[in-house]
Amino acid sequence: PPLFLPSSSSISRVGYVWLGVERHACRETGRPAPKARPTRFSGRAGGGARTREPPPRRRGRSPRPLSPPLLSPGGAGRGRVCGGQNKLVFKPDLTLEEVAAKNPQVHRGRYHPEECKALQRVAILIPHRNREKHLLYLLEHLHPFLQRQQLDYGIYIIHQAGSKKFNRAKLLNVGYLEALKDENWDCFIFHDVDLVPENDLNLYKCEEQPKHLVVGRNSTGYRLRYSGYFGGVTALSREQFFKVNGFSNNYWGWGGEDDDLRLRVELQRMKIIRPMPEVGKYTMIFHTRDRGNEVNIERMKLLHQVSRVWRTDGLTSCIYKLLSVDYNPLYTNITVDFWSGA
């Protein structure tokens, strides 16, 4: 198939779809919650993780939307309606203890709405190394944001140890595999640590097609970076991510892995959907290029190989050494090492 690189002005052959505005992510209490789908195991990944084979998708109508929900009791913004644009403030002296105190209902990064049954169980995966301040700012705003959407969610920080070049894509593969050991999550949000959502209507839940949530950011004048952009924050269901074999494990340093994932999505003839531009807005926390995350000069070469290697490069070949799993009140921290050859 033809390769669509970022410099191309054309839209991919499968196209993009704009989403209408929704204000809900759960059912009212008293209505039955969706039953958990059974999971079969197949194959093994590094660190003892086992990849999970999702069952065939059942046909049927989606649950009917309800009226805008109220915020769950507790946390910042008590009683607010999930309704739109937020003003973001970043305190220079913010501490982790302050953020935890504002989110008493969050335990080990997990939150369950009390007044409704969430439509999906959502895992937020955040790759990380040497970005503690950015992580703190993101957690401060992300927890109340997700609670206003009444999500049943868990936040996982996947930390790369050692001095080897940063590999965002492989960390996200690890996060997917390790998070599924905790729970049979329905939806995965792959989230950069320096991007903070501005609008409550940008729902962190999965759709029938893969979803790209960052339509615009302050650093680009709130414009899409380029027509095929699929980075920053993306949402794929458990089945969708499994179908494309996850991310490639071969992108060391900055750039290329999000375009690789887009090509995998296109090869499966799925469409990428986005919220409306006024909804999919983010604030990027300014930073300079990290040491160990230099631009990947091999990225274009790797992108030309996607159609040949996607079946063997991804979840099925993700080898890593699991160093620790630590439970913070606000998140689960997974530390891994990619040794030489991993």
TrEMBL record:
GO biological process, one term: carbohydrate metabolic process
Domain Galactosyltransferase C-terminal: 211-288
Pfam families membership: Glyco_transf_7C (PF02709), Glyco_transf_7N (PF13733)
CDD domains for this protein: b4GalT
Keywords recorded for this protein, A-Z: Disulfide bond, Glycoprotein, Glycosyltransferase, Golgi apparatus, Manganese, Membrane, Metal-binding, Signal-anchor, Transferase, Transmembrane, Transmembrane helix
E.C. number: 2.4.1.-
Domain of life: Eukaryota
Keyword match Kinase: no
Co-factor(s): Mn(2+)
Function statement: Responsible for the synthesis of complex-type N-linked oligosaccharides in many glycoproteins as well as the carbohydrate moieties of glycolipids.
Name of protein: Beta-1,4-galactosyltransferase
Naturally occurring in which organism (per UniProt): Ailuropoda melanoleuca
Name of the gene this protein is made from: B4GALT4
